[in-house]
């Protein structure tokens, strides 16, 4: 990757807040403050801190420490596919009554 390609790739990187609405649709709760633990390097941080690529085929959220894929989301007309094998767990807050 040359410097221009690297700059362009960097310009396309968002944070996890960019997919807050989609995650809310999937889980029914705000997930941006959910802790994630990277399977590869053990980094723990809120989902909102993940590097988010929305221009890939599907949406890819990567660990900011080791750049491993933490979450992948693919949307089709009839379904949403979520690959969460890059995090040890996701934490869904309960709605208070
Ligand atoms: Zn990591």
- Total helical elements: 2
Strand content: 25-35%
Order of helices and strands: HEHEEEEEE
- Which value, in Å, is the CA radius of gyration? 14 Å
What ranges have pLDDT less than 50 throughout 5 or more consecutive residues?
A: none
Can you give the mean pLDDT?
A: 89
Any ligands, ions or cofactors bound here, and which?
zinc ion
Strand order of the largest sheet: 1-4-5-6-7
| DSSP summary, beta strand count | 7
Globally, the shape reads globular
The separation of the N and C termini measures 51 Å
Walk me through what this model shows.
The chain has a five-stranded antiparallel sheet with strand order 1-4-5-6-7. A two-stranded antiparallel ribbon has the order 2-3. It is globular, with a radius of gyration of 14 Å. The protein has helices at 3-11, 20-27; strands at residues 13-15, 35-37, 44-46, 51-53, 59-62, 69-75, 80-83. The longest helix is centred in the first third of the chain and has 9 residues, at 3-11. It has 97 residues and is an alpha+beta fold. The chain is built from two helices and seven strands, in the order αβαββββββ. A hairpin with a 4-residue loop joins strand 6 and strand 7 (80-83). Helices cover 18% and strands 28% of the residues. Bound molecules: zinc ion.
């Amino acid at each position: 990757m040359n410097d221009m390609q690297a700059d362009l790739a960097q310009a396309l990187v968002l944070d996890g807040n960019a997919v807050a609405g989609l995650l809310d649709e999937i889980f029914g709760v705000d997930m941006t403050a959910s802790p994630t633990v990277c399977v590869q390097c053990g980094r723990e941080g809120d989902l909102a801190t993940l590097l988010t690529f929305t221009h890939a085929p599907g949406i890819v959220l990567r660990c900011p420490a080791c750049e491993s894929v933490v979450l992948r989301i693919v949307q089709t007309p009839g379904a949403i596919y979520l690959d969460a094998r890059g995090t040890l767990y996701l934490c869904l807050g309960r709605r208070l009554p």
